[in-house]
From TrEMBL:
Segments forming domain DhaL: 6-206
Protein name (database record): Dihydroxyacetone kinase subunit DhaL
Pfam assignment, any one: Dak2
GO molecular function: kinase activity
Record's keyword annotation contains DNA damage: no
Gene name as annotated: dhaL
Region forming the signal peptide: none
Domain of life from the UniProt record: Bacteria
Length: 212
């Protein structure tokens, strides 16, 4: 089962809904180790994505991802806009003009997103950032792609791995971003970027599953 442009658009709308639902949680997580704006910024950005989708009709998955990337970069403040925008822009480039995304393509897109965030933010696994959720997601999707072509299953596996990765950031000491200024005091808190990454991937996976 593959993901078409309509599936990606539906997934982006589902992502906007889950960000709005968890806005206060993300604000609180960011208040503990950051500047408390992650939830508000993410909600504003994805609301803008939905507004743009209401007046646009991307014809390929890559075009839909590029639209979302452009909107997030232009509307989301702080680090979130550039990082999420770069991830989606790299994913859009990896998707190319394909009309449908199978498991191999989903894994490729997630890995491209990881590479984009690493290039932009210079973070690595264990730095207590969104990479700690996104990289395991790419690995899990890649494992599914080795045995089958179902893009929905690959995305679902990625989402599950992202949640585990986000939970694993709690005991970490941050080495990047504003949280790194806290040193050892950053331990004991889930990274908000990792949490929002996991929430978005789950929303994308659930949307894709519902449409399959």
């Amino acid at each position: 089962m593959g993901c078409t442009a309509k599936d990606v658009i539906a997934a982006l709308r589902a992502g906007a809904a889950v960000v709005a639902e968890h806005r206060d949680e993300l604000i609180q997580l960011d208040r503990e180790i950051g500047d408390a704006d992650h939830g508000e910024n993410m909600e504003r950005g994805f609301r803008a994505v939905v507004d743009k989708l209401d007046t646009s009709a991307p014809e390929t998955p890559g075009a839909a991802l590029k639209l979302a990337a452009t909107v997030l970069i232009s509307t989301v403040g702080g680090a979130s806009g550039p990082l999420y925008g770069t991830a989606l822009l790299r994913a859009a480039s990896a998707a190319g003009d394909a009309e449908e995304l199978d498991a191999t393509a989903v894994a490729k897109l997630l890995r491209a997103g990881v590479d984009g965030v690493v290039a932009r933010g210079k973070a690595e696994l264990g730095d207590k950032t969104m990479i700690d959720a996104l990289s395991p997601a790419a690995d899990a999707a890649g494992s599914v792609a080795e045995s089958e072509a179902d893009g929905v299953k690959a995305l679902a596996a990625g989402a599950e791995a992202a949640h585990e990765g986000a939970r694993n950031t709690e005991p970490m000491v941050a080495r990047k971003g504003r949280a790194s200024y806290l040193g050892d005091r950053s331990a004991g808190h889930v990274d908000p970027g990792a949490r929002s990454t996991a929430l978005l991937l789950s929303a994308f996976a659930e949307s894709a599953r519902a449409r399959s």
